[in-house]
Input
Amino acid sequence: MENADIFLERLQQCNEIFHNGGGIFNVVLSEQSPEIHELFHPDWVVHHFQSIYIVTVDLPPYGVYSLMHYSIESFEEERNDIQPLEDGD
Amino acid sequence: MQIRKIDESLTDHFSGKSLSPQSHLGSHGIAALLDVDFTQEIIKELPAVGPVTYLTKLGVLLADVEKEGFDFLTNQQSIFAISDGEALCDTPKPGDVDEKNAKTSREMMRGTSSVFMENEGKGIKIGVLDTGIQSDHPAFEGRVVEQVNCVQDKFSGDVNGHGTHVAGSIIGKDIGVAQEAEIIDFRVFGTSPGASVSSILMGLDHCVTRHVDIVNMSLGSDFPSYVLENAVDTVSNQGIPVCVAAGNSGPDPYTINSPSSSRLAISVAATDSQKRVAWFSSRGPCSWNTWSKPDCAGFGEHVYSASHKGGYTVMSGTSMATPGVVGVAACIMEHENENSNRHGLIDWILRNGGNPHGQSSTDVGTGFVSLMDVESYVSNSEGLAALSRKKKSKIVKQDFFKKTVLSCKDCTSSKILHQISHRKDGTMRFRTSCRTHREISNDGAPSYEDIILEKWQHIRIAEQQILKALKQCGKCGKHGLVSINDWSHMKLKQGLPPHSEGDVGCLYCQAKGKRQIPTRFAELW
Output
């Protein structure tokens, strides 16, 4: 039941990304994940951070369902809002 | 719905008042908060210059638009707010800080420690993920040993001075806490405002491959990045302490930034020179995770350190507190260089060895961490035993929730958990009733028993324990409650995390009821 929920939620996320035209994603892999080329087409891989088990991929719409793979623990769309924390007020 | 807010700078820009010559045909970056139900339509119809990015978790659309696109957005009923996407992230200038009362991290974080008198972090390599470092500043004496660009640009040096100031507080001669340690500079900020998550991931990856001893991250965001938090935890799990600034979003509770909120990060709050929490320092607990944050505090208000323009300058922020704590860690690490578990020991000391000076753990964690404060813990075995006792006294036992909240004082049956709510003072209210001993008032409503848990208690209870209790049916006693309809958002006082209300029904006995709970539990349900 729980796995089915996770599967459906993931599918829903992928559908949404598909409709948004793909995008750049940071993907957390499980430590036992297969070779990266078995998960993503090499052209889609922007960075592979092997020491921290994360890969950044630029997915075209037809590639978003790669995110359904069971060895992908979580993923997030790339963002650029991290700030230096100097207080200026 | 009416548009609530449009940045005045955008209105000026598109009305031609402030058109800059660099603008591409008057285009400008915007960030629009929109109704998620209309995302597809807006993205499809928006006349944007270049690609449109939609941040699904935030419900925010980022795009470059010209006047036509701006007018299109302002006319949409489904747009709640439009902000200037190019002015999101100006790093403030340090001109308005009090230079007279400024102190160095070295003065504040070393004190007159005799145990660490000889320890200046010699042989310790620190990874600094920041805006870059002006490595030829005389204070560094060539100890910025490598500079790695994690951003795809040709810039070298320090983008805006933040990184040089941070590095100065760690290794700067006469200003840094560990003035013999070495730094590897991982520049994760480019010339445009804001760092990308992937550039920070690259920095963390390099920290592992280059075997740094400690990581300094004086950066963060008000919005959680679970991927970044996961990466910080992975680096910590490999034996590298990662010190992360708690954030400058205080003084309200629930303002801890990400990735400082990650479970294994050492989240650093800021204090003034009297070791009182700085007003801006983000306060715990974290609104999206259950563990206790911040972990400790360092000196972060009016800090005198190196400037990227040469000379010295004063800055404030949890950014400035973090390098002081990293410097303390470097000195302990050098002192313990023959201890095979020195990384674990340091992690333990930073999380448990601070001196709170009478302040709350949600403000300063376990307290201000200076070499003076922690020297007793490494100077003899009694110190370590004392630290162990101090740690144990704050641990909530596994059956605490069951015994304190769910046990009826009159019978052996477990109580029903109807509502959970965060309160302004950081405590949490659990509204319960016993199935057997429930009293019904004259108007037919059951009487409830409210149990208030202090913040250090409720943040140590596992979410799954609470969730399981919430699903117990008040009629049949089985854990069969499911959500019947979508959870609705509740309006609460400012500063409280979001709460939700929803109808629930029992799969076993078909009974129906309501639950009012923090939204994070509704999402987990």
In short: Chain A touches chain B at residues 13, 16-17, 19-20, 23-24, 26-28, 46-47, 49-54, 56, 73-89 (CB under 8 Å). Chain A has a mean pLDDT of 91. DSSP finds two helices and five strands in chain A. The radius of gyration of chain A is 15 Å.
